[in-house]
Amino acid sequence: MVDKFMNIQNWHPSIKTLLKTQSIINLKLFLIRQRKAKKVILPNSNNWFKAFELTAFDKVKVVILGQDPYHGLGQAHGLSFSVVHGVKKPPSLNNIFKELHNDLNIEPKQNSNLTRWAIQGVLLLNSVLTVEVNKAASHSNQGWEVFTDSVIRTLSKEQQHLVFMLWGAHAKRKSILIDRNKHLILTSTHPSPLSAHRGFLGCRHFSKANNYLKIHNQQVINWQ
């Protein structure tokens, strides 16, 4: 398990220091205890840092922040809101695709794997990177938030003209970590069926993101 954390240390120099903090040491111990107790942890440990593997620090253009991974078997694979091809589309992702159609007239696809976004510079980041099967938010407040908050702060401080999409109350609270003078922060309700109709559907975040990138002479995202 420690090796999985070591694999992320080259994403940015600050990660090496972060991994030595007591919060992250405690997080590792928590995950070890979970394993010893025969708990099923999602996603597979090979995918805990998939978002970072696919989107290098200096390639990030957009950050889409989720809360924690899908907790159903076979769903989570390390990218927020994404599921692997062949898995039934979760309701939140279905609403994301509805908004894409409303915003950019992009027809929803059967493939719900968002890897194609990640390799273009969309960091699909969850605040918490693991979860126990069938127990939503079960790994909250164990140290992951310290890790991902640091990532957001570092992106805000060292990058220019990023787009942060913060959907839902939990994600919106992360706006205090971001310099509004340097970056675009887009907020709305969560794409969950419980709240999507109260602001997410119709938010046009995808076209707004591309317009911002274009203004700042960056390649836009192909959201197809």
From TrEMBL:
Record-annotated active site: 68
Record keywords: Cytoplasm, DNA damage, DNA repair, Glycosidase, Hydrolase
Q: Where in the cell is it found?
A: Cytoplasm
Q: Which reaction does it catalyse?
A: Hydrolyzes single-stranded DNA or mismatched double-stranded DNA and polynucleotides, releasing free uracil
A single Gene Ontology CC annotation of this entry is: cytoplasm
Top-level EC class as recorded in UniProt: hydrolase
Q: Molecular function (GO) terms listed? A: uracil DNA N-glycosylase activity
Q: What is its EC number?
A: 3.2.2.27
Q: Which residues form a coiled coil?
A: none
Q: Which Pfam families match?
A: UDG (PF03167)
**What is one process in the GO biological process aspect for this record?**
base-excision repair, AP site formation via deaminated base removal
Q: Which PANTHER family match?
A: URACIL-DNA GLYCOSYLASE (PTHR11264)
Q: Cross-referenced HAMAP family, in alphabetical order?
A: UDG
Report the sequence similarity comment from the record: Belongs to the uracil-DNA glycosylase (UDG) superfamily. UNG family.
Protein known as: Uracil-DNA glycosylase
Species in which this protein is naturally found: Vesicomyosocius okutanii subsp. Calyptogena okutanii (strain HA)
